[in-house]
Amino acid sequence: MGRETLSRAAFVSVAKLATAGGTRSATAKAEERARNQQGMDPLVDPKGLAHLGPIRRSLPRFDKQGNLWVLTCGMPMAEETLLDTTGSMENNVDLAFEALPHSYEMYTTGKAPVLGRYDVQIATAIFNDVEDQDGIPVLCRSQFEMGEKIALQMTKLVPGRGGCGNGKEDSQFGIFGATYLTTASINRYELKYYHFTVSDEPTVLVIDPVWLLKIFGDDVFECIKETGYEFDRKGVPDTAQAVRDLQKKAHAFFLQVNGRSDVHDQWIDLYGSDHFVALPFGTEHLHCVKAAIIGLTEGVLDLSSAEEFLRNTKVDGKKMQADQAKRIVRAVAHIPLGAQAALPNFGKLPKAGDLFRDKIDLWPVSEEELQSESSVTDEQSHGGVRWL
Amino acid sequence: MTDKIYVVTDLGPGDGGKGGVVHKVCKMTKAHTVVKVGGAQGSHGVCTSRGERFAFSQWGCGTFEGIKTYLSPRMVISPEGILNEADALRYQCGVHNAFDLLIVDSMALCATPYHGIASRLKELARGKNPRGTIGTGVGEAHRCMYDFPELAIWAGELASPCIKEQLAEVREQIRFDLQEIIHGEFLKDDRDLVNEEAGLLNNEDFLDFVARRFCEVSQRVKIVDLDYLQREVFPKDGVVVVESSHGVLTDRSYGFYPHTSALRTLPCFTHAMLKDAGYSGQIVNLGVTRAYTIRHGAGPMPTAAPEMAESLLPGSNKDKNRYQGKVRVGPLDLILLKYAIEVCGGPSAFDGLAITWFDQIQTNGVWHLCNRYLNSDQICVWREKFGDHQKYQEALGKQLFCCEPEIRRIEIAKTASRSELFSLCADTLQCELDVLVRMVGFGCTELDKVCR
């Protein structure tokens, strides 16, 4: 239900308000709220309020049309980015926020949008360190959104800007959430959504159940059942297992900032070398790297067209330089090309405008079925059962 | 042209299963609009055969079917609750266009968070003698409207540039009213709650927040004039369903004082609203009750049977909150059911009954009913034109607290078909209540509700 998508105008209006006309960070208000011990906005609090809960859902949008349901914007494709916001990574939300309109356009518009046929639904998560003080949350995680709320919820994230210099950051909880507290309807078609973790630090390999309860709420082990998993606090998977489980339902990549070898080694062990990407420009142009990865995975781009695609991307109002595009393509060239396109239902996916008998049906009503039934319009469709 | 309107009324103190019944009727008849009357204090649960589950407070129970909801002028809304419910519908259930499905009458009264605080503080001040409240402030807002009409905030005023000042005035009045209460006696365990609530009353940031939220509602919700029913709803072909909140046994006048709601949702008020809007088509009055008695919150319940809690509400009977207390269940009280029917105008006022949760009776293999109190006269509806009606209702309530029910057992074959069980249920209740049973629920989804 609903048809809204992200427009530049909507983004500008959110940005204007959040940054006070460009004079402060987009997350300034959220950071102030956290400093005042008022916590996170419930929409980005991993545990949510009672009326939301910790699961993030990417669900299709339907409108009622006569007796049928019309898929308004194509099948949802979830994309979540888990950003490190500690230490030198502290500006990542602002960078991602500024790049959001570009990023969204690369996904959805232009000659070769990499996710053009889908209803793109974006969530942003950020992680800090469990030792952070002053109301800094270990994890913030937005909902999957598709319009101006993508931007709006980014402004509610609370970057830590610290990190404690303890040799690691706590990204493992974000990976846990992405894996065990996410439902994405694209998985019903045995296709995968996209998940990116961005950091310059090692992670913690054991996921502490006490922190899970603190971050996701007391009912976290009950909630994971809805996503098809079952374990209690004694059986919490470690980070490696969580990544393996994530990769079963998502094209999950680790994007490394800077080139520290210990970081490189740990994350390659976790994600596999084909899902590990060393960012050529740090988090600058991150959105271009993500779009290139998605395009190559979807089979919308190949290595040569990817370069052209990137060169058509505007950076600071200008087209990206050829060598920049080349470096990005080189950085992602080793990923499994066409991995999504190779999945069996890739070509059969319902599209925007398809009619469904019921909202939970996997496949739309066929042309033959539609023709064999009397055409139903809104005006004619009231003929329900006469009762009493 | 709309040619049929179903008016769904809970014949108990609430929790009768209206949500599922409204959803069933909506889906079966392909209703085009749900009209809500009463207040946003309750939650009407819907489980669909598609697997959707939600407790609706402001949106109607046809929402999952894409059916629009009109919050009528007989509804007390919670603007803050509307935003929360929209978020929950969006993120839990994939209803991304919830605001496209909601129309609010400009004359719907708004409950503010300050009314909620007042309601909860007053209940906390009652200590161990609760009146029973959900604590959302819906009833409090309604009472305030009578006492201080100039402070009432109507949906049509949500967009007013003075909304913050209006809220501040409401807050000021409530602060004044609560002065003594806040400094009075409370149960030791309630002290933290009291401090938290009182803190919000004095928090300027909270006032700003509430004002912003009210303003946001005005921008997102379609607010319409009084003629909306006549102009937009009735000209549409098909069916309308009127979904009312709480139940007859907590009616302000005919409930058992003081355990009553401030609001009134008897079918006669809905009929008057429909007639005033020019509707002259068929009205189908449907009374709803569970197959057993349930009461959430304080108030008389002669058939309360704690030993049946686990068998009638397996797994969920321990749910408890400070304001509603622990849920109570027991045998179906036919005396109170007859009373509720009489309050609405007698058996002829209903075209049918919907009996919900009969599956639990089937599972238990026995149906307990009460059609007589051993130590009490009849429970009669007040018919006098003069006299102290409230005092009468209070006395009735006290009488009910002392009633000893005579319980009748009906054995249920666990292997009986739904058709056989429907007949058993219908025959039993028709004989006692003189109203036809037209729907029996054998589970939570619309497919589990059998209609005749």
Task: Write the SSE topology.
The complex is a heterodimer of chains A (388) and B (452).
Chain A lengths: L7 H11 L9 H8 L20 E3 L3 E4 L2 E4 L4 E9 L7 H17 L10 E9 L11 E3 L6 H7 L17 H9 L1 E3 L8 E7 L9 H8 L3 H4 L15 H11 E7 L4 H11 L4 E3 L1 E4 L2 H13 L4 H9 L2 E2 L2 E2 L2 H11 L22 E2 L10 H6 L16
Parallel strand pairs in A: 1-7, 4-5, 4-8, 8-9, 9-10
Antiparallel strand pairs in A: 2-3, 3-14, 5-6, 12-13
Helix pairs in contact in A: 3-10, 5-8, 10-11, 10-12, 11-12
Chain B lengths: L1 E9 L7 H12 L3 E7 L4 E4 L5 E4 L11 E10 L1 H15 L8 E4 L3 E2 L2 H13 L12 H10 L15 H20 L8 H11 L2 H17 L1 E3 L3 H6 L4 E7 L22 H10 L5 E9 L2 E4 L12 H4 L7 E2 L3 E6 L1 E2 H10 L8 E5 L1 H7 L1 E8 L15 H14 L2 E7 L6 H16 L3 E5 L7 E3 L1
Helix pairs in contact in B: 2-7, 3-4, 3-5, 3-6, 5-7
Q: Name the strands of the widest sheet of chain A in spatial order.
A: 6-5-4-8-9-10
SSE string of chain A: HHEEEEHEEHHEEHHHEHEEHHEEHEH
Our count of helices of chain B gives: 14
Largest interface, with Cβ-Cβ < 8 Å?
A-B, 33 and 38 residues
Q: Please, what is the oligomeric state? A: heterodimer
Could you say which overall geometry of chain A the principal axes of the C-alpha atoms support?
A: globular
Structural class of chain A: alpha/beta
Largest sheet of chain B: 11 strands, mixed
End-to-end Cα distance of chain A: 32 Å
| Tally of strands of chain B | 19
Distance between the termini of chain B: 25 Å
Helix content of chain A: 25-40%
Q: Return residue spans of chain A where pLDDT drops below 50 for at least 5 consecutive residues.
A: 375-380
Strand content of chain B: 15-25%
Major pleated sheet of chain A = 6 strands, mixed
Shape, per Cα inertia axes of chain B: globular
Radius of gyration of chain A: 21 Å
- Percent helix of chain B, as a range, is 25-40%
